[in-house]
Amino acid sequence: MRLWGTVALAALLSACSGGIVPPEAGVSRAPAPSPAPAPRDTPRSSLPETPVHLPARQPTAATPLAAMPALPVPASATTARTTGVVAGPALNTLPIGQEGAERALAAYKLSCTSLQRRTDSTGLTQGADWAESCRAASSWPTRDARGFFVRHFDTVQIGDGKAFATGYYEPEIHGCRERRSGCEVPIYGVPTDLIDVDLGLFSDDLKGKKIRGRVEGKNFVPYFDRTAIEQGRLDGRAPVIAYANDPVEIFFLQVQGSGRLRLPDGGVMRIGYAGQNGRDYTGIGKLMKDRGLLGPGQTSMQGIMAYLRQNPEEGRAIMRENKSFVFFKELTGAGPLGAMGLPVAGWTSAAVDPKFVPLGAPAFLSMDRTDATGLWVAQDTGGAIKGANRFDTFWGAGDDARAIAGGMSARGVAWLLLPKAVVMRLTAAPVTP
């Protein structure tokens, strides 16, 4: 489903985002014992080492554009339509750069066919509304990408337009396909005894609700929590698809829900979300903040990771308070994949709440930092990405992406790009919640 999860502080302090992970994902692994010395005949260069990562990227400040005047948001609002829609600024007045427009056009080409088939939960559009721009995108020259958006779209503001953006990325950590000294943290596939139950089959009152668990005797019980799994309860119940050398890195990879393992031979194994144990997610960042464990400058992803490594026993106990556990599968082909089942792209894709932004639609963010300002295409969702004007920006893979996403926390204003006919229809008369 999604490259889940948010790396930025907002997600770490609550639930995981968006990013390439489903809403219930976002778990951590307790630290493994110190690895035994490498066998004498094993070259040290063939063993994975704990990577050294760049600190959170310090942003270049920017001044966001002013939001459009809007009516107060009704307390009962649950979608973009009921929150209130006002016309935004003319698209040709917004500071859309050439590179950003080209990336957004490529992403829109990829998404727009699916966008026409999806049911828009925002209440703003119908599938047919996107057909004309989708046809045009297929042959539109890249050199005039900005002209494409100006020609086919106008902007709208949802509610007061006040936007908050975090960041996520595709982690790359050291790992091995087989267990070896220094590479001993198991990465599990889906257990054979994990069962999904659709409660709606038993009662109309429970329609849409599901639970996960296992059968024990004649009873259906919750699945093993993370502590039990770390203590070996999955032995014989779940495949081990790979091993990692750093349990803290695995924690953050699970928060993201998808990532890359850099293998000893230089190859790469991509893994993605395959399932979850059904237990509730607890954000350990919030626990650490509430307990005064994170001082000034430590509230980024990098600061949290440093604390966990410096205090392994305490970190183990904190992480075990999060009972949720994510299972993985090896990924092949294009990726990572977002909630639309399509590849997401760094500096272009964003996770959103689909009740407020149509999945596949473009949006323009004017934020208080330059890297977050520009065109983004909604191609993903996330458990912590809820409400109007909430965006989780995707930055790709590698240390540069990690450095940006790890400290991404931007505020400003958001405008959705909708087909011109839709904007005319929505703004022709006051919206009645």
Automatic annotation (TrEMBL):
Pfam annotation, one family: 3D
EC class (word): lyase
Enzyme Commission code: 4.2.2.n1
Reactions catalysed, as given in the entry: Exolytic cleavage of the (1->4)-beta-glycosidic linkage between N-acetylmuramic acid (MurNAc) and N-acetylglucosamine (GlcNAc) residues in peptidoglycan, from either the reducing or the non-reducing ends of the peptidoglycan chains, with concomitant formation of a 1,6-anhydrobond in the MurNAc residue
CDD domains according to UniProt: mlta_B (cd14668), mltA_like_LT_A (cd14485)
Domain Lytic transglycosylase MltA: residue ranges: 172-329
Designated name of the protein: peptidoglycan lytic exotransglycosylase
